[in-house]
Amino acid sequence: MPDAHSLPAAGLLRRLGAMLYDGLLLLALLMVATGLVLLLTGGEAISPTENPLLELVYRGVLVLLTIGFFGIFWTRRGQTLGMASWRVQVEREDGGRLSWGDTMLRLAASLLSWLPLGLGFLWILIDPGRRAWHDRLSRTRVVVVPKAARRG
């Protein structure tokens, strides 16, 4: 198997494909959670004016599910299901697996890449290491995993 630093960096299109897959999976997970919360309201919309505590708990659950989705996959395998489909993997700069702290930092920093209309992701096109803003801020990188030797 190649050395961690010899794996090629993933390009923008491959990363966007993985994000699309993961976005659909995460959306389905969040929809199931929403359905479960709606059971508590009798099917009525969750409103901050009618039940502010439930709405706050609901938002917290959605955030925790999102963090958990990425955190479990990144800390155990280095890749989500969408990333596995597109043969990409996230790792620390030293080639190691992400910790929960790395995951939290990467997720928070990814918001900075999205906020200015995705400019932080487009940065991949001009960065010599094909790294987005959040890759640099979290000291991580996304690499292409060879077909014959998926890292596990």
Largest sheet: 2 strands, antiparallel
Amount of helix: 55-70%
Number of strands: 2
Radius of gyration: 17 Å
Number of helices: 6
Quote the beta fraction: 5-15%
End-to-end C-alpha gap: 11 Å
Elements, N to C (H/E): HHHEHHHE
Strand order of the largest sheet: 1-2
The chain-level mean pLDDT equals: 92
Our count of domains comes out at 1
Low-pLDDT segments, ≥5 res: none
Outline type: elongated
Look at the helices and sheets and give the structural class. mainly alpha
Detailed description of the structure:
There is one protein chain. With 152 residues, the protein is mainly α. It has one domain. The protein is 55% helix and 7% strand. It contains 6 helices and 2 strands; from the N terminus they run αααβαααβ. The chain has helices spanning 12-40, 52-76, 81-85, 100-114, 119-122, 133-138; strands at 88-92, 140-144. A two-stranded antiparallel ribbon has the order 1-2. The model has no long low-confidence stretch (mean pLDDT 92).
